[in-house]
Amino acid sequence: MKFEGTFQYMGNHGIVFNVSQITLTDSERGRLRELHFGEARNAHYEVNSKVVEVYDKMLAKGLPCVMKVGISKPLTRQQGDTLNAQRTKVANLAASAFAAATSAVATS
């Protein structure tokens, strides 16, 4: 495994992510559980499990695979509330679009 770099990215609403870029080959699949992401702290095992799951779904079959793993710093209460409000807004928009499409098909 080759770590190509680690950097920070600031996303929407001031959420900061620590991003690690890794190049993996098929022969290194067994060593994925040895990766250590210090930013994950207590969730280290869950992050490793997700990395293995994603790699297995990619079916790279001998080709090098570039993977980026982003772990956010803990959210503030305000950031969490903003994300929840955004999620609710998007869900409502999707439901409205589905309802409009359904009514258009039903009246045809």
How does this model look, in words?
The longest helix is centred in the last third of the chain and has 31 residues, at 77-107. A hairpin with a 5-residue loop joins strand 1 and strand 2 (16-24). By secondary structure, the protein is an alpha+beta fold. A 3-stranded antiparallel beta sheet has the order 1-2-3, with no helix packed on it. The protein is built from 2 helices and 3 strands. It has helices at 44-58, 77-107, and strands spanning 2-10, 16-24, 65-72. Helices cover 43% and strands 24% of the residues. The chain has 2 domains: 1-74; 75-108.
TL;DR?
The protein has helices at 44-58, 77-107, and strands at 2-10, 16-24, 65-72. With 108 residues, the protein is an alpha+beta fold.
Question: How does the SSE layout of this entry go?
Answer:
Layout: E1 2-10, E2 16-24, H1 44-58, E3 65-72, H2 77-107
Antiparallel strand pairs: 1-2, 2-3
